[in-house]
Amino acid sequence: MWVGLLYCIMFFAARYQSSFESRGYGSAGELLMSHTLVQVQEYREKVVQCLHAGSYIKPGQYTVQTLLLYFMTEHHHHTDAQFGNWILMGQITRIAMRLGLHRDPSHTSKVSPFNGEMRRRLWLAIVHIDLTTSSQMGLPRMIRESCYDTQEPLNLLDSDLDEEMTELPQPRPESVFTPTLYIKSRGKLLSIFAKVSDMTTSIKSSSYAEIWELDDELTQARSSIPLGLQLQSPSNYLAEGHAVWFYRLSIDAMFQHARCTLHRPYLIPARTNGQYIPSRNACIEAALALLRHQETLMMETMPGGHYELCRWKVSSFWNHGMLLAVTVLCVDLNRDFDDGLMGDRSELTDALRSAQRILLQSWSISADARKASTAIEVVLSKARLVTTQNTAANTVLGQQAQHYFPQNTPLWSLEDFLGPDFPQFQHWVKLRDRDQTSQPFSCTGLMFEALLRVTSLQGVVQDKDARLVRERMQSRWHFEFIALIEVRVGEYWADIFVRRSGLA
């Protein structure tokens, strides 16, 4: 099994190496990149072979570590969230419990102080990844606080630990930065985010007072973060290194993500009930902050940026928050247009334009990016804010932007997509074969929940395809899911993805 662990380490080494090689120019840079991609694929395959050869279902030493790193290889290999990764995380959780990682090592003298601390670190990572992965899928988390008593690891450097030690040293103060301090600080917010997730996935409704109780807990958890890990201007991080900057940005993004998720159900009701206006404002503020963080991350990690070597760390966990923010702003703007409220919403439209510039860079490799950028185009086109001429042509893609949204494209309105009486169904319908594997839309991804409900397919797909879609809809009327149509200009085709509505 340790050979599989080694291959996982080699995978991430190759991924990090590609951060340097991607800066190469011409044929030399392309050759290096192609060689690295071959290595990455080979290492992933070798890890799987080692897991099978080592009989991972009969867990032993290094089994959980190898499985967890394999999960991360799959997570970093795909741009969009994958349902299979959530299934894999369920296996890892159960194997970890089979090995007793959910019980604190202090209950037995058979575990040395060193191994006990390593087990605490490992379990904390599993708890955090379970929550974030479940949130991406829009499903309940698998690990509950009542199921384990493992304590948090101490704030120690690796150099403070030794396999032969007879007792653990005193933890370092929070003024001393360690990787464990980041995990524990992020965990303070994640523990509240777990309550938010439980509330949003529960079949029972919560009172409005409970919403603000959780909001207060979030704010208190944020204020308890050590000063060294609180968000500052990126220019202040240069002396401390790129890791500290990335950690600070990640922690604040987690806070904004949790707050946006918490108040999102009241985004639309606030328009008819003044009691919910504070929630609407909080949700929009958090969404705008998430998009600012995403733009900062993109600018600072692009070639030539201060922290370009952090780019390999950006994964679908990050994109999840961006998709959530785009959903919130699109829904809010669309209701403004429907209600005839044409006030100054430049802050929201500018944020969406910036988000679309980022999303278009991933058009060819991310289904989520294609859907999000298309939704932005639909909403802004409704207000005659056509991003084709104003924004997309000025992106890093230059003239290629016209390929995505050419000027002769019909301007869609969300009336073509929205409708409370739309027959919702569970399974996605594939109307046209494509080169890449289609995946069910990832949860924030839940992404266009209630945003792109399809009521009319006329002018979007061919008649024969529309008939096929309607037949599938009628046969699955009883499922409470939403559908998202992806429209690509120049050809009429659609992939319909299904997610459960969080705004219903």
Automatic annotation (TrEMBL):
A biological process term (GO) from this entry: DNA-templated transcription
Q: Which Pfam families match?
A: Fungal_trans (PF04082)
Task: Tell me which domain of life the UniProt entry assigns to the organism this sequence originates from.
Answer: Eukaryota
Q: Where in the cell is it found?
A: Nucleus
The organism's lineage is: Eukaryota, Fungi, Dikarya, Ascomycota, Pezizomycotina
Keyword list, A-Z: Nucleus, Signal
Source organism of the structure: Scytalidium lignicola (Hyphomycete)
Name of protein: Xylanolytic transcriptional activator regulatory domain-containing protein
**Sorted alphabetically, which SMART domains does this protein's record hold?**
Fungal_trans
